[in-house]
Structures
1.
Amino acid sequence: MLDNTQSFQFFNRGPSPAVRLVFFAVLSLLLLFVDARYRYLESTRSALSVMVSPIQRLATMPGELWQAMGNFFVTQRSLVAENNALHQQHERDAALISQLQALQQENQQLRNLALLPQRGELITQLAEVVYAERDVFKRKVLINKGADANVQTGQVVMDDGGIVGQVTRVYPWLAEVTLITEKDHAVPVQVLRNGLRTIVFGAGDTSQLSLRYMPVSSDIQNGDVLVTSGIDGIYPPGIPVAKVVKIERDAAYPFARVSCLPVAGVDKYRHLLILSGLPKLPERPPEEPAAADADKGTKIKSKRKN
Amino acid sequence: MAYLAPNNPEIQRPVGNAFIALTILAALFLNGLPLEGALLMLRPDFVALVMLYWCMHKPWRIGIGLSWAVGILADVADASLFGQHALAYTLLAFGGVVLHRRLQMFNLRQQTSQVFGILAMTYAAYALVHWQVNGYIVWPYFLGCLTSTLLWAPLSILFQTMRQKRVEQKGA
């Protein structure tokens, strides 16, 4: 076998492995840099995803088939029980909804009286998780609605419990949702009990959330529910996000360590709602005057020093 | 234990490109199975194993360039950064191509220890990039390296038998 004698080369085999290694490693590093820093390659990615997505679809088939089999062999008794439970739930919900409608009406009238802008109604779109976090590192899922269903990056995704995440990347037929438990993913929230505003961050390696920069003296308790504050104009206000489960107050640190668990089934369910049509907030006023004042202040100070 | 013999006396027919492409696609499929939690952490990197196998056995056909391209596809499939898998698989292919002569002389048990080193390097490259970009390392990720190594011997035997079967079919 000629393959096994390399000491004298009869045939030109192209550049040596070391040269190739350096070339492709540098190419990879360059791509990494460009992708991490500038995100120029999104169109290439979506073009390539068209090639890869058939394989991915195929890979989700066994699981779906298993589920379908399970659905087929459900006993009649469990179906009846589930139906009863759903009926009861429906009746309770109906009562709540009629109450809610009355409150909504009242709220609208009050807001009209107070000349406050109306809260827009949320338009939702149902989507299904195609597959969940394939990478141990990441808290992301891919859903089966993409650019074809007019999904845009930045849209909020929730389930029946509360906020699940945010659309971070849109492919032709898929969209990537970053879950709120992703490391450093921030959601502006307020405590339902007393309206305390804060920001909740994902912990990354566990399915927990944490509140940072909460002063030790702040009024927060175990079991407090955190809802979105809607201050950023991205998350609609008043949707549950998390529940406080543990608070560590250590006098040595200025901030308390608060751990929370998400209210939504962040890594449980298959069906999610994409919210769209959030009301636009008015433009944030520019910050220049303040900066100019500060400049003046320093100038005056420097003059005084002179 | 014929397969464990260092030099298999049976002459192996050349492998078709279609067969290689099929194995790579199958590996991408297996990597794409929707696993969660502990199973996901223990999931071997099938693509890495298949690429290493071909780099070792057909170093002049499946080399660093193709591994890089497969890495890009894996990046798209995993929604990881462009070049993250590509860099890891480039290193993997380099290890396979450079050591192919030595690895072919070894029996499966000796191969496994060598393969562990190459895979550990691959996993480390991937984790290192992740650490550089995101600033933390998930240690359980390296469990996948162990399961991948354990899968090396079964995979080699499987591919060997598949290649021999092709010979028999063609002979008949």
2.
Amino acid sequence: MSHLTAFQTFLLLNILKIAVVLVITLTAVAYTVLLERKVLGHIQNRWGPSRVGPFGLLQPLADGIKLFLKEDLTPLAAQGPLFILAPIIALGCSLVSIAVVPFGAFHAVTLNGVSVDLFNVANVNIGLLVILGITSIGVYGIALSGWSSNNKFALLGSLRASSQMVSYELALGLSLVGVVLRAQSLSLRDIVNSQAAHGILSWNVFGGLQFVGFFIYLIAAYAETNRCPFDLPEAESELVAGYHTEYSSMKFAMFFMAEYANMITVSCVATLLFFGGPASPLGHLLPDNFGGPVLSAIFPILWFVAKVFSFLLLYIWVRGTLPRFRYDQLMAFGWKVLLPVAMVNIIVTSLVLALRG
Amino acid sequence: MQLVLFVIFGLLAVVAALNLLLQRHPINSALSLVVVMMSLAVLYWSLGAEFLAAAQVIVYSGAIMVLFVFTIMLLNAGEEEPTTGSRAASIVGFPGAAAIFCLLSFVFLSERKALGATTLGGELNTAGSNLAAISSLLFTKLLLPFEVTSVLILVAILGAVVLARKEQ
């Protein structure tokens, strides 16, 4: 290793981290789809996919091969470059934001004079704003896909999706301000550390009394990812398949992967901001080096994965049980209920913090 | 590192700005403007102004340009038709632009001391947060301009509501 310069080491280590996190995320995306089909199946009193591999565990592989081998159709009237660019923007934006998520306890590894945080691709000190910014860029993928398809269903779907995402972004952003006020930082690592003192009691959703913010975030995030009960952009009874009506083969698969990657990112953010991230719910009841150096580095990751997994299960549960909103109800709910409540939450939080401090 | 980023994204911003002018379809022009704003955000970031970079992405390319694209999509604006253009623009245009460029660069170069030299942001991972500095500045020294700007935006919103309201 010694013949590499510090910059080369830094570059290599980071590319390695990015590759590992990307592979894990894409695998998680594939298996979230399987999880959804299985859980929805059991909710509806049937088995779900069970033929490919044991318990249907190889189903994502079969789906992937099927989508890859399908014919890639481009409508004659489509706007060429934008039609191809749209799914790339959607998938790219949904995968980039995972880079700022710290998924384990801080664990610096020094190699060749370069210190790298092992369980976080990029520890940016405005991590939360980066996630919000990337989400707002992701709107372009959906807006352009509908417009460039030159299809009225696709255009209506994408108009619905982008106006819904722009409207709910406000409530989403404002619901996070309470957490930022408590942590006094936009760095996701600092926000996690601010909740680490007494285990479950100091998590923002319980001890931090940010449960109002949490529920606003949860509802706005469901709308932001275009998931049930706010999946109007893909309302199949009205709009065929919404913005991806004209997409086939891998381009469709990219939209599909983007939706599930967004679900995972949103679950990660909910975990980090309101449920202590990789911090254990037991706090310091167990000694910090419990189980030796390797196990004590792995436990936070397990906690993080367990919390994200329960948010994904909640997503699927909601999809299995709730009916779809009507479009005017959705808009009225976002602007007239969620936004004012989020503002009240900010005012109350800052008043309490000001009186206490 | 900072110089490399500046060269790449400065070039990208200039190329996208030229593309904005040369494209015939409004949606391509709007998307080029998004690229310009994103490259400006990267330049801000490389100078150590992370908050400004994030605000640029969220406000300009995330909110305002989405509305632009939205309007173009809704109006279904087609390709613009080339006209001969006004004679005044073709005569005065290039010298005028060159004069403004010269004037601006003269002011920037002669007032460089007063404007303050930009300092390198250092390693992105280790740069300290300038969020607290910005917010305390905004709410103490710059409070009046800050509030006046918000009132200005409020006036614009009220104007839009008045224009959009149906006649009784």
